[in-house]
Amino acid sequence: MVQSSQEDPGWEEQFFALKAYQRETGHCKVPARFKSNPKLGRWVMTQRRQFTLLMQGYPSALTAERIQRLESIAFTWSIRPEPVKTWNRKFQELKVYKNTFGNCMVPQRYQANPQLGTWVHTQRRQYKLMIEGKKSSMTREKAQALDSIGFFWAAKPSSASRSNNNAHHTQHARIGQEMNNSIGLVEDR
Predict the structure, then answer these.
(1) What residues contact residue 63 under an 8 Å CB cut-off, 6+ apart?
(2) Given CA atoms 136, 142, 148, 151 in this order, what sign does their dihedral have?
(3) 15, 92, 100, 167 - which has most CB atoms within 10 Å?
(4) 161 with 171: CB under 8 angstroms?
(5) Are 109 and 169 in contact (CB under 8 A)?
């Protein structure tokens, strides 16, 4: 049998610490490795994990009362952004990049937007996994959207990168060229 919050002094102590954190910061997104109060960071992570277990139908120490109390202070059950929104936002950023530079060859370490460079690299890696029949976040719809704006599935050297002292960071990968060929992309020369 699960104790009520009032019967669990440890839960109460952390809940009050969370309320103080929320008053100070305006939110309940305590970092998992919160240096000022590591115990609070772990406790918040545990509440999210217990909530996930409960939602999946598994036993959980999280009661309806605890959920109500946490929600009364605007507790955030998920700290990760929705993957679809994130993908769509990065896709729009890639379209802006293409309009600016004329291609989708974002350097992996693109200083103006490092997250976009990482995202583009991730799309190539996820596409390769999908082609190999492995678990992947890439879908045919995403691949088609990327194809529609001239995305290359393998980074390749461009004349701009050679003449502009590696302005475009590139990777040479035989598998990547094969992937481009397999979907009908022809390398321009």
Answers:
(1) 2, 4, 5
(2) negative
(3) 15
(4) no
(5) yes
Locate the domains of the chain by residue range.
5-72, 83-182
Residue matched to tokens 């936002």? 89
DSSP 8-class letter at 133: T
Contact 66, 11 (CB under 8 A): yes
pLDDT, tens digit, 9 for 90 and up, residues 106-123: 998 899 999 999 999 999
Give the C-alpha separation, 127 to 62, whole Å.
39
pTM: 0.49
CA dihedral 44, 77, 24, 6 (to 10 degrees): -60
Taking every pair of C-alpha atoms in the chain, what is the biggest distance, in angstroms?
Answer: 73
Calpha distance 41→46 (Å, rounded):
9
